[in-house]
Hints:
Helix content: 40-55%
Strand order of the largest sheet: 2-1-3-4-5
Largest sheet: 5 strands, parallel
Oligomer: single chain
Structural class: alpha/beta
Distance between the termini: 34 Å
Radius of gyration: 18 Å
Number of strands: 5
Amino acid sequence: MEGGLRVIVADDHPLYSEAIAEQIENSLSGAHCECVASLDGVIARLEAGGADMLVLDWDMPGMEGLASIRTLRERFPDVPMVILSGFIHAIGTDDILACGVKGLVPKSMSGKAITSAISVVLNGGTYMPANARQAGAVAPAQANGNAKPSGILTAREIEVLHCLSEGLTNKEIARRLGLQEVTIKMHTSRLFGKLGVRNRVQAVSLAIADGLLEQR
């Protein structure tokens, strides 16, 4: 698909990989996914045509932990990589960050939340779930040593947060919600304050970790 976002979804469970691929294609404009079921399949596909994003199962055939990640990063350094795993506590987040991985996503997350995590990476961020963070992968609110609780968000702030996760501008959010752009800026400012973050990428990353994007 020329001009679109090319995503490789690598998992040895076809029903799961196809469901994730469908969610990505439905949620990210212009996205086209190809599913493979092994490390060899990933390498063959990357050599054949490349990709703009690799969503990779930690435990699929051919994977040998960090050694395989390092091999992929060395051979295809320009392809952002997000790791999927059902056992995130068994993975050293400091180690995979050091290898250049941009995201670690629990398979227990909903398809929508997984897509939001991928969006964080595509926008230049790094996603790590709160319960997997270690010293090298702190929550956005902790990055400046000023950790804060999420607090109680209003229904409107939750709506704004969902719009931010879709990558909408303030003007687009205002149009969708039927509000003035200056009002959206005020909501966004209060939202950042409650989450203890500095920007949109950090807000969405923390919201995913806290399950806030599951709220409506």
